[in-house]
Amino acid sequence: MNTEMLAMILAGGQGTRLGKLTKNIAKPAVPFGGRYRIIDFTLSNCTNSGIKNVGVVTQYQPLALNNHIGNGASWGLDGINSDVTILQPYSSSDGEKWFQGTAHAIYQNISYIDQTNPQYVLVLSGDHIYKMNYETMLEEHKDNNASLTVAVIEVPIKEASRFGIMNTDENDRIIEFDEKPDEPKNNLASMGIYIFNWGRLRDVLLNSYSKDGQMIDFGKHVIPSYLEAGENVYAYRFSGYWKDVGTIDSLWEASMEFIDLENELDMKDKSWRMFSKNTISPPHYITETASINNSLIVDGCYIAGAVSDSILSTDVQVKEGSTIENSVIMPGATIGKNVTIKNAIIGENAIIGDHAVVYNEEEIEVVGYSEVIGVQIDED
């Protein structure tokens, strides 16, 4: 088997900053936008970019993620010359098991990559919301005769210290990398998206792990080593919508932006569709007591209350007298009667009992996966 570029999606993160939402599932499997999961955006970008072979590296709580991806059919990755492969940690003769970092995860899967025999390896994160044509990035990588290309995006300078910052020359060749600098020299932040010449990266990783095993992380170890060795390392500037939804605030903000039909993601664009594995549910039902304003309502919902500026995912129930504002209700959640929910994220299959209040003036309130809040729900 031989392919020009293989995509490796790093999807094993625990996502501790998402708190209750990732207690039982990996961050890339967290629902987003009513009918998607976060990893759908990266997988769909691969499909739309013409990438036919994808490895998904998992680790933390992978069951929901594995079930969601399946054989890749939802993204057209189940053909004769296309596939998606779930890659989980395994014990080896040297005792290695858990992936210790991003580069170590690639090293542990060298045998899989060699089977595909790519010229280039595209390393991606499974927990970002964005649209990107990776083929365009590859063309720039080739034009620059690069050994490594790093996708970057301009961020507000006041936030630059949160990111790995790429300092470049006038041709966008990276001359210095600062990991979360206190005083950043510019605002070109790494997006955690890399294209490597596979032969060179393979040699670097094998050489490291035959000696000291220091090449654990791309940002902390591999990129600095490439720069020190004088490799051709270039920045690829991305100017579209991109959101790292690794915190409760950023997940909620991205969800509120998603409600706007004119948002930069433009989900109506038929030339760059977002694909997902969706539950088959009946049409949503809106009772005569319901009122809905500026909200996204997905299949299977039953609504008898008031919903505004919110996202109701698949199979959500909202009983009579309840009010939901500026909130995200994830799949299968049940909201009882006379409930007030505002500025909140309600996890999958959560149950909010009658007369409960889910609202905090100081921060986004979160109800976890299958969590039960309040009294028993009255039957209709």
TrEMBL record:
Q: Which residues form the Nucleotidyl transferase domain?
A: 7-257
Q: What is its EC number?
A: 2.7.7.27
Which residues are tagged with the site Could play a key role in the communication between the regulatory and the substrate sites?
59, 98
Return one GO MF term: ATP binding
Q: Which reaction does it catalyse?
A: alpha-D-glucose 1-phosphate + ATP + H(+) = ADP-alpha-D-glucose + diphosphate
Residues at which alpha-D-glucose 1-phosphate binds? 164, 179-180, 190
Q: Does the keyword Transferase apply?
A: yes
Which Pfam families does the annotation name? Hexapep_GlmU, NTP_transferase
- Assigned protein family: Belongs to the bacterial/plant glucose-1-phosphate adenylyltransferase family.
* Annotated protein name in UniProt: Glucose-1-phosphate adenylyltransferase
The organism named in the record is Enterococcus rivorum
Q: What is the lineage of its organism?
A: Bacteria, Bacillati, Bacillota, Bacilli, Lactobacillales
The gene that this protein is the product of is glgC
